[in-house]
UniProtKB/TrEMBL annotation:
UniProt organism field: Ravibacter arvi
PANTHER family linked: EG:BACR7A4.14 PROTEIN-RELATED, ZGC:101858
Name by which UniProt lists this protein: SDR family oxidoreductase
Signal sequence coordinates: none
Family annotation (SUPFAM superfamilies): NAD(P)-binding Rossmann-fold domains
InterPro entries membership: NAD(P)-bd_dom_sf (IPR036291), Sc_DH/Rdtase_CS (IPR020904), SDR_fam (IPR002347)
Superkingdom per UniProt: Bacteria
Cited Pfam families: adh_short_C2
Length: 272
């Protein structure tokens, strides 16, 4: 008789802060993490879906914090909530991001600064605040970047700059903190993901309700774009002890080669 290996929870009793986890990729990561035995700090700006998610997971497994990460002391408060609720901190997932279109002509300096504050400076601040506690647990940081870090879409200039900077942050700290603090820092760069926010943005841009079913092969060779749950499945490896001492790595989750692939501005194929 074939004996199957006993399944174990890959994140059993690990405490993880996940920013931007009331919806989208962050929500999927939170759900997957809890299913693997973790306790999580849910964070976001929209209280209603956050409360619903905590209720789904249970108060013994999740706690909610609603706050703009650009506020002074926000990072320290997130860390304090994790310690107060669960007594330690094993990992941080920097997922929260602001996605707004701009190009060289429309990107003002205040706009660029606002994107950098959320997408690059806030992750740095949270790593800095969490570091003493991650050092104690030999923990991990997982940054959620974007394939736009390499070249970027023409209409996502500021966003692409911010994700390029986040990638450099990951490479730099992933080396330094692994050597000096035994804290691993890695990054996932997702491609195009069908999140609630992406659906909302496309509707606001005038795309048809069924745009995701009309994707040309240049965007989606498989006939569809990625789902948040697929990003979450990959995230668990980097948050678990399975990834061992691996640090300073950036992994692309996309269905086509991405270096040099720069989609055109005209996406009218989805409209109408």
């Amino acid at each position: 008789m074939l004996t199957l290996p006993k399944l174990t929870m890959r994140l059993k009793n690990k405490v993880i802060i996940i920013t931007g986890s009331c919806t989208g990729i962050g929500k999927a990561i939170a759900r997957k993490a809890v299913s693997e035995g973790a306790k999580v700090v849910i964070h976001g700006l929209d209280e209603a879906p956050g409360k619903e998610l905590v209720s789904e997971m249970g108060n013994d497994r999740a706690v909610l914090h609603i706050e703009d990460l650009t506020r002074e002391g926000a990072a320290e408060r997130l860390v304090a909530i994790a310690l107060q609720a669960f007594g330690k901190l094993d990992a941080v997932v920097n997922n929260a991001a602001l996605v707004k279109g701009s190009d060289i002509h429309s990107t003002t300096l205040p706009f660029l600064r606002s994107i950098l504050e959320i997408n690059t400076i806030a992750p740095f601040s949270l790593i800095q605040a969490a570091l003493p506690h991650l050092t104690e647990t030999r923990g991990a940081v997982l940054n959620i970047g974007s394939v736009n870090a390499y070249c970027g879409e023409p209409n996502l200039l500021a966003y692409s700059i911010s994700k390029g900077a986040l990638q450099t942050l990951t490479r730099n700290l992933g080396d330094t903190l692994n050597r000096e603090n035994h804290v691993r820092v890695n990054q996932i760069n997702p491609g195009w993901v069908l999140t609630e926010n992406e659906i909302r943005i496309k509707r606001e841009e005038g795309f048809s309700d069924d745009w995701e079913t009309k994707l040309p092969k240049v965007y989606a060779p498989a006939g569809r774009i990625l789902r948040p749950e697929e990003i979450a499945a990959a995230a668990i490896f980097w948050l678990s002890d399975e990834s061992g001492p691996i640090s300073a790595q950036v992994v692309e989750l996309e269905q086509h080669p991405l270096i040099g692939r720069n989609p055109p501005k005209d996406m009218s194929v989805f409209e109408g």
